[in-house]
Prior knowledge:
- The chain has helices at 18-30, 43-49, 53-67, 109-118, 139-167, 187-199, 225-246, 263-276, 287-299, 301-316, 318-322, 339-343, 347-354, 365-372, 375-381, 383-391, 393-414, and strands at 6-11, 36-42, 74-80, 94-98, 124-126, 135-137, 173-177, 204-208, 253-256, 280-283.
- By secondary structure, it is of the alpha/beta class.
- It folds into 2 domains: 6-107 and 146-286 and 404-414, TIM Barrel; 289-400, no CATH class.
- The chain is globular.
- The two termini are 30 Å apart.
Amino acid sequence: xxxxxxxxxxxxxxxxxxxxxxxxxxxxxxxxxxxxxxxxxxxxxxxxxxxxxxxxxxxxxxxxxxxxxxxxxxxxxxxxxxxxxxxxxxxxxxxxxxxxxxxxxxxxxxxxxxxxxxxxxxxxxxxxxxxxxxxxxxxxxxxxxxxxxxxxxxxxxxxxxxxxxxxxxxxxxxxxxxxxxxxxxxxxxxxxxxxxxxxxxxxxxxxxxxxxxxxxxxxxxxxxxxxxxxxxxxxxxxxxxxxxxxxxxxxxxxxxxxxxxxxxxxxxxxxxxxxxxxxxxxxxxxxxxxxxxxxxxxxxxxxxxxxxxxxxxxxxxxxxxxxxxxxxxxxxxxxxxxxxxxxxxxxxxxxxxxxxxxxxxxxxxxxxxxxxxxxxxxxxxxxxxxxxxxxxxxxxxxxxxxxxxxxxxxxxxxxx
Length: 416
């Protein structure tokens, strides 16, 4: 299985917007841009909501059948490891191998020495087309990178072999993820990570590094955009170099996780992709759930009552909800409206605070982040929430499609 040049991870917490999400990809195709849809849902999300991996497969297959989609599509077992992969093997054909917990655990010294010797041609002054100055790589840097990342890649290899034994080598796509770590990877580190992936024979088609700055859930990037663009460009060209030098899959491309709503980065990303004719995989999980919630609030009546109830519960359970997402949210509690205040709002006020429009004086990124991680409360509502989503399906579907197409696909890939 081969992943297309551009691919979008389409997160859908409650599995009701498959057709709306695919419609956004279809709109791009009608404009001459091919994007591979990848439905993704993590073990954590399944556990919180009470769904199973097969539910994502059903959603994807049903959407494809309804829209008569003829192009490739995938179902991603998102952020899995050896302890969680088995539940996804039958229903998934895309596996995001999360190795973050093994990064920094020191590899055996003999393994490090052997790795450095095997790749000593990269030591010295290394010129890579697209990077202004040659990379000055010392033996100590190579050894440090190997010590830090070898165990992580060996874990990825174990998970890959486990999937391969069950599904066959050509029946799935592999992504290696190391974005949920504290420090970003340097170009030198990325080169040696890719060397380790090649050594292990992992046919990775995407890799998700950690970038400088904050990629908080559902809100814009926090950091130096110019520095990000430089890192993104360097990672793109290091991957191109590694594909030629290490025999990695020709379509290996960069992946950006927590890509929802990183509006300030989309123009720089687009610029780099066009300059180097490079592909991209981006995950937009979570945004769909917020479109559902905003649409319910806008509808008024019980829809607005549901939205207010979810916020009130989220406010009182903030520590519980924030725990699993501590590394990807920054919520200033002092800037959150109290539930009594929110209870007095009409639908327009609720949507203004929630909708990611930075030109709106009432937009509140703290409010948005808290509701982003409050889908657990909607899941606990059960039929009440799902019936409301079904009742306002037409409005929600329109908003979901427009959000992905106009605010994500268009600026990231289509605009020049």
